[in-house]
Every structure is written in structure tokens, then in C-alpha cells.
Amino acid sequence: MFKKILPLLLVPVVLCSCASIVSKSTYNVRLDSSPRSATVQVFDRKGLEIFNGTTPTQVALKSGAGYFRKARYSIKYTKPGYLSKEVMIDSDINGWYFGNIVFGGLIGFLIVDPATGAMYKLDRIELNETLASDSGTGNVSEKSLRILEIQQVPEALRKHLELIK
């Protein structure tokens, strides 16, 4: 009798994977801005646009981008009269992934959690970005000094920046 029951008891232990059971692989990310009604675009790690909307909004993002590959997203905010802003969302190892050592075994550790993306979690699930006013930036002849955070400098202009020591 015990020989018949033992395989049934081992099936859940062999097939389970800790992060896939306890955690998730898709997260609802809330995107907001000040001022509101900004256009927000989400690009995946390949640079493909996967979402386009206006703030405030919510988008479902996966934490994995393939087998043993974490997701990475670029979020771009734009609004007329304001400087565009780009921020990143990255994935980190999910602590529950290491529960496979105790509970999920090799199948969970090497197959299920890496394949589902549950071995990762997004580092942020809520973004509320403030857009800087673009007043005065269009007039080149007007001399002024503006101090910006690096995140406020458009990505295309960052390559022209020089470090001053």
C-alpha cells in the first residue's frame, strides 16, 4: 500500500516550483505623472513599443523576457510644453526562487521558474514622474543657466554631455 501512495505524494514535490506558486510573473504597474494627461510609452528590452497611453494608467508587465532572461523596460513620458522624461524598470531575482532548493527541487529551479519568468520580480510597480517645464528652451539667443537632473536630459542629448571635475 505504501509503495502505491509514495509516488502520489512525491508528484507535487517534484513538479512544484516555489516562485511560480508563491509569487507571480506579471505585475500591474501604475504609471502617473505631474502634470497628468502626459503621453506614456513603454518599450521592452529590444526597444519595441509594447504600450502607449496617457497618465494615469496601469499596464501589465512581465518580469521575465525569456528563459533565464530578466525583463527590462524603458518608460517615456511626453507632454507639450514639458521636457520629455525617460525612466527604467528592471527585474531582480525573486527571493522565492531560492525556495526551490528546499521545496521545488531541480525542476522548479532549472525549468519552471526560469521559463515562466517567476524567478524575477520587477524593481518598481508604481511610477509617478514630475515633468519639468520646457519654458525658454526654444530660444537659443536668450542666455540662461538651467540645472537639470540627468533624468531630465533627453536621451539623445546625453551622449554630448561632458564630465566636469
Question: Care to describe what's here?
Answer:
The protein is of the alpha+beta class and 165 residues long. It has one domain (2-158). The chain is built from four helices and eight strands, in the order H-H-E-E-E-E-E-E-H-E-E-H. It has helices spanning 2-15, 18-22, 105-116, 155-158; strands at residues 26-34, 39-43, 49-54, 57-62, 72-78, 85-93, 120-122, 126-130. The strands form two sheets. It has a five-stranded antiparallel β-sheet with strand order 3-2-5-6-7, with no helix packed on it. A three-stranded mixed β-sheet has the order 4-1-8, with no helix packed on it. A hairpin with a 6-residue loop joins strand 5 and strand 6. The longest helix is centred in the N-terminal third of the chain and has 14 residues, at 2-15. The radius of gyration is 22 Å and the shape is globular. The N and C termini lie far apart (78 Å).
How many domains in all? 1
Q: How big a fraction of the residues is strand? A: 25-35%
Helix/strand-derived category reads alpha+beta
- C-alpha Rg (nearest Å): 22 Å
Number of helices: 4
The multimeric state of the shown protein is single chain
Q: Can you summarize the main beta sheet?
A: 5 strands, antiparallel
Mean pLDDT reading: 77
Strand runs, count: 8
In helices, the fraction of residues equals 10-25%
Strand order of the largest sheet: 3-2-5-6-7
SSE arrangement, N to C: HHEEEEEEHEEH
Low-confidence segments, given as residue ranges, are 8-20, 138-142
